[in-house]
Design goal:
Elements: H1 2-24, H2 49-58, H3 61-83, E1 95-97, H4 101-125, H5 133-161, H6 169-176, H7 196-221, H8 227-233, H9 237-269, H10 276-279, E2 281-283, H11 284-290, H12 292-300
Antiparallel strand pairs: 1-2
Length: 317
């Protein structure tokens, strides 16, 4: 009887030790479940985009890239604010109706989504610094919700602003003088209702945002079939995920920079400019100086009278 008990105890100890090894993953190579047969069809990390992804992610290039870009932009804007300073326009003259309630509502939805998307995306890039866990998971969920908000706004924004955002020849002139923002002197600049900088941000947000929706969706759901990509480009599901992560992070860094530029221009570089997307009205002098060709269009179409500021500045041809 003692021998039987001793045998049973020994057997339990051996099974328990073996089970512990399986849980710890120390004996997976000997298991028919965890051997190479389980990985059939999954590309190794040293193939295709695997090596590029592990190189970029493993060396924290994405995390440091977004951090350096944000710091550089903040330093540049601080220098601009201290050296050149914000532009001030007359807030006691006429006002020009620029944005309808519908436009402002769509812009508000897009603005809320981007204000959530960028910081939550940055936090996920630096997830280990924030300790991972509940907080980073919360940021991931907020990122997903904000993506839905942006997806709702992307089509209305394209329909209401797409035509106005097409590039014109005078946009080249605007870019050559950086919209006059490097000078303290106020002179009419070549710009329509939207200047070249706003147009650049629009297309980055629209096209880049659309690509980020696609790549983000791929990474969120993970398990999906891509027969078209497999047949046309020869990419497996894992390769699509790796490429999606690379593209998503790179475009995300670009979008973070453009969003900061957009916020700086609306809140700091032009005093009171942000009120136009809240009330719908722009100051007459601001329209005359910063959107001079739109001003000429409004006067030509009888939508506003010639401005009193024509006596103080030279009209652009």
């Amino acid at each position: 009887m003692k021998k039987l008990l001793l045998f049973l105890v020994s057997a339990c100890v051996m099974l328990g030790a073996n089970g512990a090894n399986q849980l710890e993953g120390t004996n997976q190579g000997m298991s028919p479940i965890w051997d190479d047969n389980r990985l059939v069809g999954i590309d190794r990390y040293d193939s295709y985009f695997g090596s590029l992804w592990t190189y970029l992610q493993g060396n924290d290039y994405f995390s440091y890239g977004v951090a350096i870009a944000i710091i550089a932009v903040l330093v540049a804007f601080s220098a601009h604010y201290m050296v050149v300073g914000p532009k001030h326009f007359d807030h006691h003259s006429g006002k020009v109706y620029a944005f309808s309630k519908y436009v402002r509502l769509v812009h508000l939805i897009a603005a809320i989504s981007w204000v959530i998307l960028v910081p939550t995306g940055v936090i996920m890039m630096w997830g280990d610094l924030f300790g991972g866990g509940f907080f980073v998971r919360l940021m991931k969920n907020l990122h997903g919700i904000a993506t839905i908000l942006f997806a709702i706004s992307i089509v209305p924004m394209f329909l209401m602003w797409g035509k106005r955002m097409l590039l014109s020849l005078y946009d080249i002139k605007w870019m050559m003088i950086v919209g006059g923002y490097l000078s303290k002197i106020k002179n009419p600049v070549p710009a329509g209702k939207f200047n070249a900088g706003q147009k650049a941000w629009f297309w980055v947000a629209m096209l880049g945002g659309f690509v980020m929706i696609l790549t983000g969706t791929a990474m969120y759901f993970l398990n999906f079939n891509t027969p078209v990509l497999s047949s046309v480009f020869g990419l497996t599901q894992v390769e699509v995920l790796r490429l999606a992560a690379i593209v998503h992070n790179i475009i995300g860094i670009v979008c973070a920079v453009f969003l900061l530029v957009h916020i700086y221009m609306a809140v700091f570089a032009i005093k009171g400019a942000i009120h136009s997307i809240i009330t719908g009205y722009k100051e007459e002098e601001e329209v005359y100086i910063l959107h001079h060709y739109w001003y000429q269009e409004l006067v030509k179409n009888g939508l506003m009278k010639p401005s009193k500021f024509e006596a103080s500045y030279t009209n652009l041809k």
